[in-house]
Each structure stands twice: as structure tokens, then as C-alpha cells.
Write a structure and sequence with these properties.
The complex is a heterodimer of chains A (274) and B (182). Chain A has 274 residues and is of the alpha+beta class. Chain A has helices at 4-10, 22-33, 35-52, 61-76, 96-116, 137-148, 158-169, 260-273; strands at residues 152-153, 183-192, 195-204, 207-215, 222-227, 241-246, 250-256. A 7-stranded antiparallel sheet of chain A has the order 1-2-3-4-7-6-5, with helices on both faces. Chain B has 10 helices and no strands. The chains are: A alpha+beta (274), B mainly alpha (182).
């Protein structure tokens, strides 16, 4: 006769349907004759009913943040020790005016990036004729991004910004994040063609400069090049300058309203640093 | 779609925190510490393997279990606690008795703190086995693999843990559990 441990294992979990084969029949036969096993499954049923009524607990936001911080420190433990620590800007969220300005420039930047790149950052896929059942990953992407629950960090500390980037993009980055004449002001998450990337923001006397980093799974290295086209429908205001370049893993771009030749110098400085 | 390690942690974090809360007897900072340890252990293995295993939840559970058991010293190691079915029954000779369905109602408004408090009555290995089998509904074979113990030992731990949990919940709710029992 089958022993208790084997019978319980075969019948576990008891609430799930299973194919009835010879072993299951033997286990059930054991159960009919074994009061101990019947008691065990009965007790499990009572406890299971109770456990399923326990309200779900979620990891608190601050706990999530500390765990992802620890993970980012683990990733960057070797790569950032040499960065000087600078005073962190007091708040994670900037002033309303600053955010509004940044949001406006972000919109401009996205338009320019999408419209001016000589080739798309990622194959846009079969969405031209509408969303198909296979396109759910775009929503999953956003869902996963929200699961991390942190989309913006205001900081002047390159090490902290690097940890945020590493944590958010899941790629170890060794960017110094210093630009001549500019101060680091923060990092923000962006979505470009369904790919989660980040924008490193710099400031200088009211002038802003955005450094885009978008992971990509293919493509060779690309030297910095100035985009000269103007997106359809653009009129009136000065058009921001855009310089695009990339490595095998990351598509990068600098966007600013500064003169194109100066922006190119910045890109070359970043390329030389990275 | 290729997921980063951080994305998978984001997906698993609530479940891991719930488990850690139970294992850590409902002490939040200990639960956080456990999850952090489990995630970092997982990350180090992920980095050395250059990839993620296919059964992600099972894999993270293994790291959480090991982080918890490591924190309880060698005495908590499954190898030291492995017992056979007959042996473990000697440790808890008091029969629990048959359970009428009405007991369900008495347990229906459990809170997660009560659950974790009751779990504190379990020895470390039994607590891990109980979490995986009774709460996560994992198969004995999976739990044996995570704990590195024979399946027979898992079965013994589970039986004892069920009884201990029932008694512990009864102690937390005097006058509620057991009333009206046949």
C-alpha cells in the first residue's frame, strides 16, 4: 500500500484538477483507508479557506525604493566609486514652473527625435493598420515601468543619477554625467516607440540640455551626427538642435535650443567621456 | 520580450514581501531585510549565469528561503532537520481531530499580522515549507528541491506545520477556534 507521504504528494494540491492515472487511483485508495491523511487534507482545506481571505499585503513604496536602491548599488558598486558626491537638490520633484517647461521641451524633443532620425530607433512593427493581439507588450512595458514606481529624480549627484539610470534601464552604465558649463539637474524616464529610456537633464543659466538614452538590441556604433530636418507642421518658434549617436546597446541623443555646433561639441565630449 | 532583472523584481516584489512578512513573524524591517537579501542573492547568481531562469517565481522563492534559513544558523538547515514521517509525528503526538466545515467561518477574517504571528510558532524549516506548500501551493517536489531535502521530510514538516499553525491560530483567538468542534 502507498505510504502517507507519497499519497499526499500525488494528491497535492487537492483543489487542483488532475489526470487520473494508476498512481492517483492508488493515492485515493490510500486516502479512503487513512484517517490521518483525511484529517490532514481536511485541515489544509480549512486553513486554505482562511488564508485566501487574508487581505493582500503590498510592499510599501519606500521599501520598494530601498530595495531597488540596494540593487542599483550592487550593479554600480565597482563603477562609481570615483565620482565626487555633490549636494543633492532638496526635492525629487522640481517646481511646477520647471516641470512645465521640461514637459514642454520633452514634447518638442520627442517630436524631433522621431521625425529627424534617419532611421527609426526600433522597428515600429505591425501597428500601422491598428493594434493587433500581438501588440500587448507595449502595455506590459508601461505596466512594468510603473511597477518600479519611480519615474523622475531631481539630483545634482552623478552617482545617485547613475544608480537611478541603472536601476530603471537595467543596463550598467558608466556615464560620468558631467558636461562642461552645465549642472546636472535630474533624470526622467521616457518611452520612445515602446522602449523605455531615460533623459538626463542639465541646466545652465536657464538653458536646458537633454541627453536621451534608449536601450536598443541591435545596430552598430554610430558617430554623432547633427539632425537638420524639420518635422512636418513645425513653424514659428526656434527649432531645437538634435545630435544623435549610439553604441551597440544604447541609442543616444542630445536635444537643446543651443546652437548646433555647440551641441555637437557637447556630444563629442560625452562620447569621449563614455 | 526581454525583461531586465529589475523588471522581474518589480513583478515579484509584492509576493516576496508577503512571504517575507510571514517568515519574519510580521516584523516589517526584518521582512524588508529578507527580501533585499533574496533579491541581491538572485542578482549575483543572475550576473554569474548571464541570464534568468525560466521559472522565475520558483527561483526567487529559493533565494528567499535560503536567505531566511541562513539567518537562523546551521541548526535551521534542512539537512539537520530532515525527519522521516514516523519520527516527526512523535514530536506532535496530540491529534488535531477531524475538521468540520464550519471551522472555515471562524478563520475567515484572519489578518496578515495574525497569520505571521501564528507562523512564529513554527521552527524555521517548517515555516519555509509551510509557506511554500500551504500558502503558495507548491508541489512537494519543488519544495524539496528548494530546501535540498527529501520529499518525505517535506511531507513530515507540512503535516506538523499544519497542526502547529492550527493550534497557534487557536491560541491567538481563544474562544473562537475549536468551539463547536465535534
Amino acid at each position: 500500500m502507498m505510504d502517507c507521504a507519497e499519497a499526499r504528494e500525488i494528491l497535492w494540491p487537492p483543489e487542483e484538477p488532475r489526470m487520473v492515472d494508476q498512481r492517483v487511483m492508488e493515492a485515493r485508495e490510500h486516502l479512503e483507508q487513512c484517517e490521518g491523511c483525511r484529517d490532514h487534507l481536511s485541515l489544509d482545506g480549512a486553513l486554505l479557506h482562511a488564508f485566501r481571505s487574508v487581505p493582500a499585503v503590498r510592499a510599501p513604496a519606500e521599501v520598494r525604493e530601498r530595495i531597488f536602491d540596494a540593487l542599483a548599488r550592487e550593479r554600480t558598486a565597482d563603477g562609481l566609486a570615483h565620482f565626487p558626491t555633490r549636494k543633492r537638490i532638496a526635492q525629487r520633484r522640481g517646481t511646477t514652473a520647471t516641470l512645465l517647461f521640461m514637459a514642454a521641451l520633452l514634447v518638442v524633443s520627442f517630436v524631433s527625435l522621431w521625425g529627424l532620425a534617419n532611421r527609426p530607433l526600433q522597428d515600429p512593427g505591425p501597428r500601422g493598420s491598428g493594434w493587433s493581439a500581438a501588440d500587448g507588450d507595449a502595455f506590459v512595458e508601461d505596466f512594468l515601468r510603473r511597477a518600479v514606481q519611480e519615474e523622475h529624480i531631481g539630483t545634482s549627484d552623478p552617482a545617485e543619477a547613475a544608480r537611478f539610470l541603472t536601476r530603471q534601464l537595467g543596463i550598467p552604465l558608466s556615464l560620468p554625467m558631467t558636461l562642461p558649463g552645465f549642472d546636472l539637474s535630474g533624470v526622467e524616464i521616457c518611452i520612445v516607440e515602446g522602449v523605455r529610456g531615460a533623459v538626463v537633464m542639465y541646466k545652465r543659466d536657464g538653458q536646458v540640455l537633454y541627453h536621451y538614452l534608449v536601450p536598443r538590441g541591435r545596430g552598430g556604433a554610430q558617430e554623432p551626427m547633427l539632425s537638420r530636418a524639420t518635422p512636418p507642421g513645425w513653424s514659428g518658434q526656434p527649432y531645437p538642435s538634435v545630435v544623435i549617436w549610439g553604441s551597440e546597446e544604447i541609442q543616444q541623443a542630445l536635444v537643446s535650443d543651443m546652437p548646433p555646433d555647440q551641441l555637437m561639441e557637447m556630444a563629442q565630449a560625452l562620447t569621449g567621456q563614455g | 520580450m526581454r525583461h531586465s532583472f529589475e523588471e522581474l523584481v518589480g513583478q515579484e516584489l509584492d509576493r516576496l514581501y508577503r512571504a517575507a512578512f510571514f517568515l519574519a513573524e510580521g516584523v516589517p524591517h526584518r521582512a524588508e531585510r529578507l527580501v533585499t537579501l533574496a533579491v541581491l542573492r538572485g542578482f549575483r547568481e543572475y550576473r554569474s549565469l548571464h541570464g534568468l531562469p525560466t521559472r522565475t517565481a520558483h527561483w526567487f522563492d529559493g533565494h528567499l528561503a535560503k536567505a531566511f534559513l541562513d539567518g537562523h544558523g546551521p541548526g535551521a538547515s534542512p539537512g539537520f532537520r530532515a525527519t522521516r514521517e514516523g519520527e516527526s509525528s512523535k514530536a506532535s503526538p496530540t491529534p488535531v481531530g477531524a475538521l468540520p466545515g464550519r471551522w472555515d467561518d471562524r478563520l475567515s477574517d484572519l489578518g496578515h499580522e495574525e497569520l505571521a504571528q501564528a507562523g512564529a510558532a513554527l521552527p524555521p524549516t517548517q515555516r519555509v515549507a509551510f509557506w511554500l506548500v500551504a500558502l503558495e501551493r507548491r508541489r512537494y517536489g519543488d519544495v524539496a528541491e528548494i530546501l535540498g531535502a527529501p520529499r518525505e521530510s517535506v511531507a513530515g514538516w507540512i503535516r506538523d506545520a499544519h497542526r502547529t499553525m492550527y493550534r497557534a491560530l487557536g491560541a491567538l483567538r481563544p474562544g473562537r477556534l475549536g468551539e463547536g468542534r465535534a
